Amino acid sequence: MILVIAEKPVLARAIAEAIPGTAQNKDACIYKGDYIITWLYGHILELKEPKDYDESYKHWDVNALPIYFPDWQLKIPEDTGKGISKKSRVNQIGKLLKQADMVIHAGDPDDEGQVLVDELLRWHKYTGKVMRLNTANTTKAALKKALNNMTDNKNHENYGWSAYARSVADLMVGVNLTVLFTCKNNTLLTVGRVQTPTLGLVVNRDKIIEGHIKQKYYEVFCKLDIDGKSVPARYVPNKADPALVEGRIISANYAKTIRDKLIGRYFTGIHISKKKVKEQPPLPFNLVKLQSYCSGHFNYSPQQVLDITQSLRDNHKAITYNRSDCQYLSDEHFDEAKDVLAAVVQNIQYSPAELDPNIKSRCFNSSKISAHFAIIPTDERIDMNKLSTEERNVYLAICKYYLAQFLPNAVKETTNLKIDLGNGAAIESVSTIIISPGYRAIFREVKKDASSDLSLIDPETYQGTATAAEVAEKETKPPSRYTKASLNEDMTCISKYVTDPRIKQLLLSKDDGKEGEKGSIGTSATRSGIIENLIKRGFLEERGKKLISTPLGRELYRILPDEFKKADLTAEWWEIQEEIREGRKPYKTLIESVLKAITGVVHDADSYPRIDNSIIPSRDNRAVLGKCPRCGGNVIETASSFCCANWKSGCKFAIWKKSKTKLFADVKFTPTVVKKLLAGKSVKMKNLTSNQGKKFEANVRLKNEPNSQYSSEFELKFPKK
User: Fold this and answer.
1) Closest Cα partner for 632 from 645, 618, 622, 623?
2) Sign of dihedral through CA atoms 299, 301, 302, 308?
């Protein structure tokens, strides 16, 4: 018997399709001839925490640091009661391994994909033959080819050890530094290799914004009369002009002097040229690009999009793997496109006029695929009525970007005007018109390109007059505040903020070959969760869509040692991991390096500053939001809820920030909302969820049920329509 262990269900099904024979599904396995194909759900084992080795570690103590074990062991996570039991899955695969004559390792073709199957084989002490399947391309044809060209898994194990070492190092940093700085400051301060530099992005952005001093500058515009047409244009100063500061005119009088010289001036050398440009459709989505799109169009958070796409993939089989960091597809995907297009057109009941399955866009490029490929629709027939509003919106967006690959390029004509003023300065103008919309036909929300009467003028050299001119006063602006979506995107290219050239290059090298990542921290699967945790832990807060660092977050970032709060850590670890992958160093090299750094911080703990205690609210002095409807006590805000301060005396009243009920799953309870509810007022809520997953709105009021078994109860009233 040959046992195939795939990283995830969708990959197992794809492998099963590539194996000849009749499939039989039984007990979360697919049986085909001599093959049994089973699957994991990512990591089904996890590292033990210190308390799993010794219960004394449950009580945090600086004197116990650094916490380190020569052999960091694994454990089966406790079942949550939701979803698949990991314990039963581990045991089931253990029984299958006893029957197996050979194992096919079918993890993703990266470090994490390697280790999650390797660690399971080690857990069961499997010593039989193991072959590695290349799962970079999961199309049927590619997997058939890969099954005939497998390699010995021993040749790949160093990649798994590299990932194991990184996970141990992450745990060591999180445990030791969190305990150290929490105990030192008497408030919970969590530290993490990815979390902390992510916090730093927001802290540093906020400081730039708040320290920004507005600087006025001026631009000069004019109207040109050319061949009977009125053309707007802009004065472009000589870059070497000594009157400029950082390339800008900052003197109003100087700008007015230029304006006065232009008004009524006659020009003889007005050069006009035209150029036709073919514009290719945007690439299909990876997860980060999809999260940004949905933030801008539907105001969905990155975590919401991750959850929605998970449902589209798992519950509806509507899309391919959703945690992808790639925007490209393979050549085999192009061969399968006709079936996918037919399904999409049927599902969404829309077929663009120029849709052509024979068009092969730039996205079909096997050389640009690493562990994943772009998020696209599957060839499944979907009942759109079974999708929630959110699922429908996201699915249609994915379909739209896929359909665009089979539409002609848009054709634009750009007309450029330039007048050389003879002193290095010039007058310029540009106008663009769309000659053929091509793929743009399905992107109706795209802004129109800038056009003017200039587009109506043939390319030639003309004469003309500046009939008018004006000075526009402007101000320099600081960068925009982060949103969840823009922070998520910046995590994929944090290297652009790194000044150390060596570290910058290491970060870029780490992502070499990954088109969607350019010197990144975190992964597509983890970034949105990291951002949510920073908010949950009180280091970031949301104000509307804006994400702002809290005083506690700024203080935490201020007091941490540089080597543990910058992206440099990810770069330096990656350099050691490369040596582990290549077999030049044992996996413990990274762990021992991190231990040495942590030991140094622990030894110098007294030299690090403490946070400003004034920003930590006393538990006894927290703001009172209202009176408890059950016992009359004060209702206060905690990290996870708005609860009665008499909870120690037995009052269970609470309104959870992240509700445990489906009804309020996408509703955010804020202090303002809770104050109104406690005052007996009703609050209009627009994002309530029915049992069927549909969104609706209602006026919500808090019910006073003194003997309720629930933490809080509400009544809903619907507006008359």
Assistant:
1) 645
2) negative
In sequence order, which residues have a C-beta less than 8 Å from that of residue 300 and are 6 or more positions away? Answer: 291, 294, 308, 390, 394
We report the CATH number of the domain holding residue 401 as 1.10.290.10
Residue at token pair 């799109």: 293
Kindly report the pTM of this predicted structure.
0.79
SS3 readout for 601-629: HHHCHHHCCCCCHHHCCCHHHCCEEEECC
Q: Which residues in 557-584 are b (16+ Cβ under 10 Å) and which e?
A: bebbbeebbbbbbbbbbbebbeebbeee
pLDDT tens column, 87-141? 999 999 999 999 999 999 999 888 889 999 999 999 999 999 999 999 877 778 7
Structural domain includes residue 212: no
Same domain, 394 and 417: no
138-158 in b/e form (b: 16+ CB < 10 A) is bbeebbeebbeebeebeebbb
What is the C-alpha to C-alpha distance for residues 56 and 375, in angstroms, rounded to an integer? 46
| Integer Cα distance of 112 and 164 in angstroms | 8
For 122, the token pair is: 């080690």
Q: Is 90 exceeded by the pLDDT of residue 514?
A: no
Q: Are residues 372 and 321 in the same domain?
A: yes
Question: At which of 457, 474, 491 does a domain end?
Answer: 474
Q: How many domains does the chain have?
A: 4
